[in-house]
Amino acid sequence: MTYRFLGVTGCPTGIAHTFMAAEALEKTAEEKGVSIKVETHGQRGTENQFTAQEIKDAEVIIIAADKNVDIDRFHGKKVINVSVSKGIKNPEELIDRAISGDVAVYKGSGEAASSNNEKSDQGSANIWHQLYVHLMNGVSHMLPLVVAGGVMIAVSFMFGIYSADPESSQYNVIAEQMNTIGGLAMGLMVPVLSAYIAQSIGNRPGLIIGFIVGMIADTNGTGFLGGIVGGFLAGGLVLLLMKALKNLPKSLDGLKAIFLIPVLGIFIGGFAMWYLSVPMEAINQGMMNFLSSFQDSNPLLLGLIVGVMSAFDMGGPVNKAAYVTGTALLAQGNFLFMAGVSAACIVPPLATGFSVLFARRQYSQAEASAGYVNFLLGSTHITEGAIPFAAKRPFTIIPIIMVGSSIAAMLTYMFKVEVPAPHGGFIVLPVVTHAFLWVLAILIGAVISGFLMALEQKRHQRKNNAEQATAPAPKEQPASKKQGSLLETNQIHLQQKLGSKDEVLTFIAEKAKELNITTDAKKVVSGLQKRESEGSTGMENGIAIPHVKSDAIQQAKLMVVQLAEGIDWPAMDGKPTDFVISILVPDGSSNEHLDILSALSRKLMNQEFIDQLKASQSEAEIKELLLGGVKK
Hints:
Blueprint: E1 5-10, H1 17-31, E2 36-42, E3 45-47, H2 52-57, E4 60-65, E5 78-82, H3 84-89, H4 91-100, E6 105-108, E7 111-113, H5 127-157, H6 173-187, H7 189-219, H8 223-244, H9 253-292, H10 299-313, H11 317-331, H12 336-358, H13 365-379, H14 387-392, H15 394-414, H16 435-470, E8 492-496, H17 501-514, H18 521-534, E9 543-544, E10 547-550, E11 557-567, E12 577-586, H19 592-604, H20 607-615, H21 619-628
């Protein structure tokens, strides 16, 4: 089948938004009478993938995605590129833009030629959206590792805080294995984040270099922020190398892909990341010394410093500086400092869970599920569960989380809580002094941050809605298209005894010939049958809308056939067809064919309209309904 339009949908988690956007585009395209095939990029991978021929034949490709979707295969095609939320909330606008044809042509490497009536295609992704897409491609692949690894580690602590340590009396072999498996999964977090950011920018070569750079970032303790920097470094490096090597003979393409780009990329990117890590290590040591000097200071000041550092990068170098300082002081018998660090580290994931509870309608199903899982991760001192939430809007979410972490740490120090274990979260409560007050301090901080996050999420959603509301509306069709001339009573045929789809199509063509609508009935029949071979025009409730565009048709007209009995005409609901509305349009009539289909499809989505149409007993009544609408 040849599709007029192609659609691509994808969201970072690939669970809900991907398929919601696909359904919205398909439904809207169906309503407007145009064919579309939608390729989904979800957690199960790419489904309904396009063939090279489908891409070649398509007039416009609509990309509604917040992740990398290999756009380079659409080189030379008209491409609309927007966020996945636009696909869900504004599918009609996207389809109307595609129908108009006033869309920029994608030239590769992010370049697009401006359409005739626009200096720049407003739907095309700007640089900030592209950066967000690259980042979310990394986050979407990282998220399952954080959840799976974090849960495994959390469960291992249920056997005992030191159950994974062979030297401890609590040692349990299953707990050790679970802890190790979870640790390996968590250890892949930074390399995977870096690799898939780079892959989004530089395709497969970026993936390879991104993994190596990410491993260096992780090995040198730069945390997830180092992974992000490394991912963009590796992706940008691939683009530069491809540009630098583009003039090599085509015979060396294999050598370039397998040898030159990977080796040069790892060499340059690896050394760059290695030396970027050196100052970060020095900064870490400086922060540890700085923190140690505050251990006996004012609890409010100490709590503020510890809270800000713990929430700043959630598992990164700044967070680790606070954590390592706490563990070092534990060895000296100072259990107070670690209590504040643990509280501050537990707050971020709990805050995301509370935010989802406070503003459930503002989050997607995937985000809500991650928020609920974070109650478990936070309770076991796994801060990384908050990273996907923070990564989307770090300049607003991270400061909010810092507030809650600081409050929890301050209260912990004021309550003089002591925690002798370096990890474990609420599982270590039996060995915590003033355990109730410690939990209370954490919950107060998490609830405050969660409430502020919920307010921010609502503000963000309102802003998005306002932007969409003020976006340019789709251009209205010219009023010069006189619908009154489309249908006369002699074009409506009631209670016809026809036994098959082919008989109906032939009947329509012959009547059109008699009425001088067409000069060649055979051409009309052939065109109608060809359209049916591409996909049935049978809709629901016994309605079919066969249509044809041909140079044998002299003017755009509707032909209506009411059947005495239902016939087999493949329909979406599988029911027999007994009412046929055919659209005949001259070749070269611009989008008139689609305009008529669109208007008719909208009417046929109204059950009251269909009921009145099927109950009509006269040609005049049917004409009035089709040209006017539902009778009140």
